[in-house]
Amino acid sequence: MNLDALYSELTLKIPQGGTKLALVVLDGLGDIATKEQNYLTPLEAATTPNLDKIARDSAQGRMIAAAPGITPGSGPGHLGLFGYDPLEFQVGRGVIEALGLGMELKHGDVCARANFATLDAKGIITDRRAGRIPTETCEKLCAMLAAKIKKIGDTEIIIKAGKEHRFVVVFRGKGLEGPLTDADPNREGFAIPTVKPRDENNAGQKKLAGVIADFYKAALPIVAKEKPANGFLMRGIAHKPHIPLFEDRYKLKPACLAVYPMYKGLAQLVGMKKIEGPATITEQFERYLKEYDNFDFFFIHYKYTDKYGEDGNFTAKTKAIEDFDAALPILLRKKPDVLAITGDHSTPCAMKGHSWHPQPVLLTSAVSGSDKLERFTETGANTGSLGVFKAKYLIRLMQANARMFDKFGA
Amino acid sequence: MNLDALYSELTLKIPQGGTKLALVVLDGLGDIATKEQNYLTPLEAATTPNLDKIARDSAQGRMIAAAPGITPGSGPGHLGLFGYDPLEFQVGRGVIEALGLGMELKHGDVCARANFATLDAKGIITDRRAGRIPTETCEKLCAMLAAKIKKIGDTEIIIKAGKEHRFVVVFRGKGLEGPLTDADPNREGFAIPTVKPRDENNAGQKKLAGVIADFYKAALPIVAKEKPANGFLMRGIAHKPHIPLFEDRYKLKPACLAVYPMYKGLAQLVGMKKIEGPATITEQFERYLKEYDNFDFFFIHYKYTDKYGEDGNFTAKTKAIEDFDAALPILLRKKPDVLAITGDHSTPCAMKGHSWHPQPVLLTSAVSGSDKLERFTETGANTGSLGVFKAKYLIRLMQANARMFDKFGA
């Protein structure tokens, strides 16, 4: 029997206004201990009196975001946390980029991640990033394109500038489908390739390939005289994926308390209600208190652990954890019945980027049991009762702790 | 390559009368540490000098019975321990109930778990459990039914009373197959639903549905004047599953030393030889000594850890572990070459029922290695070399420790 089907069959509804579950994600929380930092991770170096208090009554472990050795982006990282196998439910880079820019996507929308680039007289790419033009230039060029190209046939074209040379194109129309091959050779010295259907027999992909070919015909002349951004590339061309709704899948009414557009977007992809307003973790926790009665499940996202990990700033990442810890008592005023605190992946300072190292996870409830750990740390979590497991199971453990599963078999 | 096929291909026969393997199951052994019990589990609170002695030379870990967060019944719990994926090999509740009553099932038998119930004048169920009639009443009613209904067409009908309102009906005949939908709306206020094939195209299920409809026609009038048990419901209607025999699968001649019928029945489902007689763990271990030369593999089942866990009686569960420990030296007089001690699932006292928490496992052999743990406990097992793994692999680890696997590849 299929495991998801079994979970679904055993799922009991929780009483309305009853059990509350909270998934608190410190983005990129996990780290590695190195000699340079006296063999401490930021989580270990940080002073965290409030996390320490709940650690004693928690079960701990470490989670593999997608697969051993795989470094996930934010998309697969969060889909895993939401209980969707990131290998089964893939989200195109165009969609992720669009979500990151705060664009509201509709069912059937196809998104492409685009770069301005420099072409020579023969149309050969000489710089894939157009010398990393300033964001203002990118915005100006996108406005030019958007003003002149509103539709290709019956397909609406939506263009939005990102940072530096990056932008996003959304194709909104009937019968479009992804994914297509890239309009990007991924290196200099080649012309812009024509996009092709990944599946020759897919009518939606064929139509989309035609639309994109026409879009290039219309758009390239508009930027032809711009320097150095006289061309552009597109990749990750795919439609908004069909993902079973969180509420249907888990019988939990979910809310998203995130600050950055990307995470709101990812939460929306699975049908979470996006709560707008809060701009800091303090405000997010305060809003949680206000929304407590309105939802069963809260996804609360904290960005700064990842940001400073990416910067390689150990001190700042440690401080970000301490800031989080200082705000935590607000959440605990109405302690969720089931509380999980973890990351979507590791972002080791020593690596200045995401990594594959399993992220530590803390799970506490009336029936989580205690692993007798005094703190929540990578090294402690290694000895926890949850072991090392795939992130997609976290939500199932949360459901179990919420007593949402009937017994399997007699 | 399929993993079971690989195991099978690599399996070496063990020398006759050579290596002995013992799987000792303390039912519901696993527990959770809570503040109320000073953060000790029963296994941690118990004084266990004999377990301690073997702990030092053991590998330890924790096992997931079926899947993360899933709480198994005894059926899936034991099938997993016997090395059969509980999601692949499912045993209907009717079969489990029949085994629990000590009924001997034949190949092709279909079993239904039945309840006496109260119906109103229009046939609407007003009490699904007929006021939990005394066991004696149930026995009387079952005897009435059994006396009057011996066959439906060519299908033999076997009825056996259980406790209070519960009984089992076995349908024994040619060409019958399950599973069917329940003759039980699972709540009051409805009539008894007609059973239907789960698969419309399955001839065996269709035949069985007809037999059960006729059985209802014959049986309901017999109890119509009984109060409050003037009707009955049936669910979990399925045939004895086809499970590859233990001896064929593992090349080990297995014996079952259990006291309770349910566990004998589960062992019989996979073809273990049921050894009758012993009524206590002391007697079970003594019988093991006598049967030592006759089998390769011994499944020894101890019930009381689960029983007191279900009662929420921490002291009694702790004492049950101590009683087990006191008897252990009998087993160790002829120490099995490979000895695994574990549970089929956790039954935390704080939860008064089965749970999903991984059960601790201890594995000792000449080549198990030592995890340098002084005791066998949940918290220690968290740090063991076996990690957290699916229970279905335990038997493979036991086979490996018995040196029963050839090398895979060169």
Which SSEs are present, and which pair or pack?
The structure is a homodimer of 410-residue chains.
Chain A: H1 3-10, E1 21-26, H2 42-45, H3 49-55, E2 59-64, H4 74-81, H5 93-100, E3 110-119, E4 125-127, H6 135-148, E5 151-152, E6 155-161, E7 166-172, H7 203-223, E8 231-239, H8 246-250, E9 254-257, H9 261-269, E10 273-274, H10 281-291, E11 297-302, H11 304-311, H12 314-332, E12 338-342, E13 359-364, H13 378-381, E14 387-390, H14 394-401
Parallel strand pairs in A: 1-11, 1-12, 2-14, 9-10, 9-11
Antiparallel strand pairs in A: 2-13, 3-4, 3-7, 3-8, 5-6, 6-7, 12-13
Helix pairs in contact in A: 4-9, 5-9, 10-12, 11-12
What labels would you give this structure?
14 strands; eight-stranded mixed beta sheet; six-stranded antiparallel beta sheet; alpha/beta; 410 residues; homodimer; 33% helix; Alkaline Phosphatase, subunit A
